[in-house]
Automatic annotation (TrEMBL), chains A, B:
GO terms for cellular component: cytoplasm. Residues 217-274 form the GHMP kinase C-terminal domain. This is Homoserine kinase. It is an enzyme of class 2 (transferase). It catalyses: L-homoserine + ATP = O-phospho-L-homoserine + ADP + H(+). Belongs to the GHMP kinase family. Homoserine kinase subfamily. The keyword Kinase applies. Catalyzes the ATP-dependent phosphorylation of L-homoserine to L-homoserine phosphate. Its main location: cytoplasm. InterPro entries: GHMP_kinase_C_dom, GHMP_kinase_C_sf, GHMP_kinase_N_dom, Homoserine_kinase, Ribosomal_Su5_D2-typ_SF, Ribsml_uS5_D2-typ_fold_subgr. It comes from Dokdonia sinensis.
Amino acid sequence: MNSKSIKIFCPATVANVNCGFDALGFALEGIGDEMVFRKTKTKGVTITKITGEKLPMEAHENVAGVAGNAMLEAVSADFGVEIEIHKKIRSGSGIGSSSASAAGAVFGINQFLENPLNNLELTRYAMKGEALASGNEHADNVAPCIYGGTTLVTGYDPFKIIALPPMDTVYVGILHPHITIKTKEARAILPKQVPLADAIAQSQSLASFVASLYEWDKELFQESLKDALVTPHRKQLIPHFDEVKHISEKNSCIAHGISGSGPSMFCLAFAEADIENYLTESVALYISNGLKVDSYSSRINGEGCRVIG
Amino acid sequence: MNSKSIKIFCPATVANVNCGFDALGFALEGIGDEMVFRKTKTKGVTITKITGEKLPMEAHENVAGVAGNAMLEAVSADFGVEIEIHKKIRSGSGIGSSSASAAGAVFGINQFLENPLNNLELTRYAMKGEALASGNEHADNVAPCIYGGTTLVTGYDPFKIIALPPMDTVYVGILHPHITIKTKEARAILPKQVPLADAIAQSQSLASFVASLYEWDKELFQESLKDALVTPHRKQLIPHFDEVKHISEKNSCIAHGISGSGPSMFCLAFAEADIENYLTESVALYISNGLKVDSYSSRINGEGCRVIG
């Protein structure tokens, strides 16, 4: 594609997914940003419009700008882009808001290249934007945003991502209580040392999760979606976490946990009604406690960023 | 099968496999015990002969006896078995000697049942024998001995084993330096607490290993076969470990580590010559240092225990 203007959808994403701290992530269908790209003769990224959130218009202060410029420079592009960013994903919600902008920028620019980059290369440049937001280059949100589906970051040296088999039949609920958790704070609350037994349990859970997708073993899938290392510490940052988890269990949902570093929570179920009930009851709980909350019902997005116009 | 006498092969096994402490194991083709079973009217297990190792003949003191009796009782068998055990796997070598006897016992008895048990049930009874040898019921050796190939113990509650995709093209070298490491000592040397970063790295390695088998991604397979948690501590129990590891790397082998709790080491390569060179040089190293060592070259056993007569 080499048209002068395109519009894309960039999905929200859930990282960590209980057993896969700093490794797993999946993309959502029900919520995402839109971005519009126009090819320009002027080199570099120019942000022309941002709606939905108050974010820097200066390219070097904006994750989309940083990611886009990193890529344009790396491929020695003889053109530039104007970008409009229409945010639907709230900043600081924990469902990959900055990642969607970073991933969207590189995905959008890729549409204008004669030799498009592959998903791994795109992820690498998107991480440059992600670093502006979070302080370090990590791929657990940008990878699923670009690849779609569920991704496993196997390591950074060498940098590798595995697109795991689809979990098409899963329904997702997202709850975003309106509190602020800084990524730094969420990191600081983690212990430096953990029991060896928990470390072993976690490695078995993540390996089981991966095997469960390849085998599509629903029982193992459910059993593996637990977290011995991180959630027990971070959940105290999220009011009513245990009550909401209890609501998810009561409604036969199969997994519940913190999305990324929070405050959003994700919930998985094999039946849409279970998610609807989980969301309804949990929203009521937060409202009755005087807290604002957003909720989203979604399927898994199998495609990642895509052109929509 | 319901004949009165059968002979079986029960393979040696490598557990842990670097990234999969207490979870992974694979079966060897090149070394294993033989056992002969005769159906008797007398109930229970009678050990009639043991060659190759000095082991208890009393059923309740012998892993094969304990495992076999646990199974015969559980299925309310109206018969018993006489068992001859011909050990080729040295006790205390770290390549599943007691597991082979325990797994062989239940596999052999299963041949006489009208409603044979499945592999998971067999593993469960074999673990009863394993517990006699090691003090606790674990499946990381008995599972690959029964299933063959490479197995992942995903957990004990619920107890589940995944037979992973084959790694048929891999060559294995085993080195057994003649030193004694008690399983208890190998456990005691492990730290109670480990760095969170190492725990995360380990979970990514084990998950990557599993994904690499399903994708048969040779690069990822090699990258994943490392150990952040256990080997750094246990290797000090094995003289010349680092030198032998260096020999494996120099010969283009793809992984090297401790088999189970040692003292045997395993080495993997994609070419048979690499394993031969690794074994030759490592054996020479031990001999020049005045230590006895056994060495074995093997393929992966894809079948587990099997009837051979």
